[in-house]
Structure formats: C-alpha cells, structure tokens
Design goal:
Blueprint: H1 3-29, E1 31-35, E2 38-39, H2 45-53, H3 55-59, H4 65-75, E3 83-86, H5 87-95, H6 102-109, E4 123-128, H7 132-148, E5 151-158, H8 165-174, E6 186-189, E7 194-197, E8 200-206, E9 223-227, H9 235-238, E10 247-252, E11 261-262, E12 278-280, H10 284-300, E13 302-312, E14 338-340, H11 344-351, E15 359-366, E16 372-380, H12 386-399, E17 406-409, E18 426-429, E19 434-436, E20 439-446, H13 450-464, E21 470-471
Parallel strand pairs: 1-3, 3-21, 4-5, 4-9, 5-8, 9-10, 10-12, 11-12, 13-15, 17-18
Antiparallel strand pairs: 1-2, 6-7, 7-8, 13-16, 14-15, 16-20, 18-20, 19-20
Length: about 475
C-alpha cells in the first residue's frame, strides 16, 4: 500500500466519524455546521474531505480533519441552541489563539448559544410567478426549511396555461437543464392542486389578479410574497399584493423604481425597517458587484470606474431573429453576442450612496444559459499592488461578514460552468486581477440565477426574523 493510499484511507476513516456527529447536532440542537462557509448537510465522507481541501485555496494549507473532528466531539455535548457554526473558522481561530484548552475556547466562542435550546421563528412565503428565479427560490426554500425549519414555502401563484398545467409546473421543478435534478422527490396532489416537494406541500393557486387572492383560505397568513414576474416594479403595482388577504410584506426580485429600497444582502439589509412593506432585491449583477466594490472602496477609495458585464442570455431575448421592443435583443440569443444596456452600475449607488455618479456600465449578452462575469475597471485614490489586493480579497472571502457574498478563487482552469450552483453573490478570479498604479481591474464571476436567488432568500429570512445566527462572529472587512 502506498503512502498516498494509506493517507487517503485514514482521511476517510476520520470523515466517517464526523458524519453521525453532524447529524446529531442537526437533529437534537437544530445546529448546522460548515467549513469556511461550505455547508455540511446530508454529506458523505468524500464531501467532508472536499470541504476541508477547499481551505487550501484560502489559507494555503489543507484544514486537518482531526481538528474539526475534535471540535465536533465537544459540540455535541455542549447543549447548543439553534445556530450555524463554522468548524473551519473555529479551528482557524483556535490555532491562532493563546488558548490550549479547546473546550474552554469553544465555550467562550459560543457562549451566546449554549443552553438556549432550539429556537425557530416561522414565516409563510408565497412565490408569485414560477419562472427561472421562482423555481430556484422554491428549491432553496424547501432546502432551508429542512435545515432550519424557519421560512416555509406555502404556495405559488401562476396563470393557468393548460389543462395539464400542474403536471408541467411540477416537472419543471423536478428537472432543470442547467441546475440538474431536484434533490429529493416531487409528487402531485391533483385534487387539491398541491405539489409535494420533500414532504413540503406547495399550494398552486391560479390567478391573474394579485388583489383577489385570499391566502387565508389555504391557511396562509402574514405571508411574505416574493414577486418574481417582473411585471410590476413600482410601489403602486407591487402594492396590489398587499390588498390580498394574508399578505404582510412584498419582495421584488428585480430593481425597483421610485422610492423603493433596493437591498443587497450583506451591504444594506440593515436599512430594512419594520414598517417597510415593499422592498426589492435589486438585480443579479448589482448583487454580484456591490459587495466587491464596497470593500475595495472602503480600503482604497474608488475615484471612478466602469463595469462591463458579460451576461448569459435570458428569457426576454429571442431564440431566433424577431421583433423585440428592446434594441438588439430581438437578434438570436444563441448565435450572437448582444450589446445592451444595464442599470447595475447606477443601481450600486442605491446600496452604496458613496459611489453615486462614479460608475458607468454596459452589458454584453452571450450564448451561454447561466453564469455571468462582471469586469470592474476602477481608478482608485491610491496606488495598489496586485498581490496585496488579492490577499485582501482572499481574507475577506474567508473571515469577513461578507463571506457569503464574496468568494475568491485562484485556479488556472476555471470557466463559467464551474460556478453553476454557487450560493455566493460573486466570485473574484484572483488570477485575472490586474493592478497598475491607481488602475485596478477585477473579474467577478456570478451565477446570475442561483447565486442571486440565494441572496433573495437571505433577504426573505431577514424580513421574517428567521436568519440563523452564525458563529463564530465574522469580522468586518476593514479589520482584515
């Protein structure tokens, strides 16, 4: 037996010991664990090893499985309450602390959640529309309910397009050409118009008018309606949802117009007030670039910049040349690069007022179905070094409170399909970074479907008061 093979078998043995401990924490304490943000949910021993290897991209060395196993053994005996606990961050903090007593270190780090018991705040969620974003929101919400039992997807509202509409809706949820099969089971209750997804009943409501739906008839009350149709973008149009019985809040999955708050989770979600009944989740591009722009502006200062988005085609484009009310979008999406406008650069200022008037932007639609890239061409207030910028963004992706929004990668072979299904708002490509004097160019990948949908769900959980507390507490980027 070679040393490499022996070493692999030893890793498997350690990982196998971790699997039941992870399950016990979830079942008994409603605790979900991760490794540097990579959730360990329904994982195999191989999944656990891969999550520990990921640390090499961040800390330049692999996280020892023995370190996290030791932490897990302590956690299962600590009477923890509901929380999301990062094993990688705890191991890193312990290694870099003066403490030699792991139990004492963990009790100090997790003091706020010890002895509190599982606590969950429930909220009903309704998806108005069931297209690309709607179906991905459904997948994420069903998964999140299984994790934390907080926000619950109760219904979708659509127009009935055929006699077998229910079957087709369920089939589109079950299979996806980009994101693959639904992780679980989908069944249909034809008599009651219900789609069952992993034991979650999703009521299908057919309606053409949001004001006439009575959600209380289905046992839904005080619901958060997520409008992913894009049909209305102002307060008056979206306010129609609030006229329906059983609705308390509305979230739009697009940039809003007028005085509506455009929220990028991680940046300005604290601006959401209790009396805000309608908010918007901005756009996928705005969510991808705003966190990166914030940390760069806070550290170096942005004088001005241009954002060029290389964006996958979307459903509003034509498959073959035909009339389209928008310029150039009538040309065949699968055959052309299509130059079009984007409001993402200007929309950044709604979340980051300090960048108002400093950014311009354009977009190029390209013949790929998902995953886009934003090129941030920035002039800064000071000269920068490429390695220093990369090191800073690497540390932000590992240790900061924007870790769910900003990821960082340094690989010579990554391409767009490698980022399908990422939950991050954006991923900085470290090998592509260019720095010359005060000129900085950053390349940011983003899954314009799944990454954006993950940001929307974070907003929904924030509004519902159902965001799980993360331990250990993450640092502010300016402190890194």
């Amino acid at each position: 037996m070679t040393n490499n093979h022996k070493d692999w078998n030893e890793r498997i043995a350690v990982a196998e010991q971790m699997v039941p401990l992870i399950g016990r924490l979830h079942r008994n304490n409603n605790v979900v664990v991760s490794v540097f943000g990579r959730l360990l949910v329904n994982v195999s021993d191989i999944d656990i090893i891969k999550s520990h290897r990921y640390a090499r991209h961040i800390t330049s060395k692999e996280l020892p499985l023995e370190d996290t196993l030791a932490i897990l053994r302590e956690l299962v005996d600590m009477n923890l309450g509901t929380a999301s606990i990062d094993l990688g961050q705890l191991a890193y903090n312990f290694e870099n602390s003066d403490s030699t007593d792991l139990r004492a270190f963990l009790e100090d780090s997790l003091a706020d959640v010890i002895g509190t018991g599982p606590t969950t705040k429930h909220a009903d969620v309704v998806l108005y529309g069931f297209g690309r974003i709607g179906r991905l929101l459904a997948r994420i919400l069903v998964s999140r309910e299984a994790l934390y039992d907080g926000v619950r997807l109760r219904a979708i509202v659509v127009r009935k397009n055929s006699e077998d509409d229910l079957v087709k809706r369920a089939s589109l949820l079950r299979r996806d050409s980009v994101h693959g099969a639904f992780d679980g089971t989908i069944t249909i209750d034809h008599e009651n118009n219900i789609i069952w997804a992993n034991g979650t009943p999703i009521q299908v409501i057919y309606s053409n008018d949001p004001t006439t739906v009575d959600y209380t008839e289905y046992g839904i009350d005080n619901a958060i309606v997520v409008d992913n149709t894009g049909r209305w973008r102002d307060r008056e149009g979206l306010g129609q949802h609030l006229q329906a019985k059983g609705v308390s809040k509305v979230v739009l999955t697009a940039p809003g117009k007028g005085d509506l708050k455009n929220i990028v989770y991680g940046i300005n979600h604290s601006d959401i007030a209790e009396d805000d009944t309608i908010i918007t989740a901005a756009s996928c591009t705005t969510n991808a670039i705003t966190p990166v722009l914030k940390v760069i502006n806070d550290r170096y200062g942005v004088e001005f910049g241009h954002v060029e988005t290389v964006h996958s085609f979307t459903n509003d484009q034509n498959l073959i040349d035909n009339f389209h009310k928008g310029s150039r979008r009538g040309r065949a999406a699968g055959l052309n690069m299509v130059l079009t406008e984007t409001g993402a650069a200007k929309a950044v200022a709604k979340a980051l007022p300090e960048l108002a008037g400093k950014l311009t932007g354009n977009a190029i639609r390209v013949p790929t179905p998902d995953v886009s890239m934003a090129v941030l061409n920035l002039t800064l207030n000071q000269e920068v070094d490429r390695e220093e910028v990369n090191d800073f963004l690497r540390r932000v992706s590992l240790h900061s409170n924007l870790r769910q929004q900003i990821d960082w990668i340094k690989s010579p072979e990554v391409v767009s399909t490698d980022f399908v299904g990422t939950t991050h708002a954006g991923i900085v490509d470290g090998l592509a970074t260019i720095a010359t004097g005060r000129h900085l160019v950053l390349y940011v990948w983003y899954d314009n479907e799944f990454g954006y949908s993950s940001q929307v769900v974070r907003i929904v959980e924030e509004i519902a008061g159902a965001r799980p507390k993360v331990y250990p507490e993450r640092a502010l980027p300016v402190a890194l």
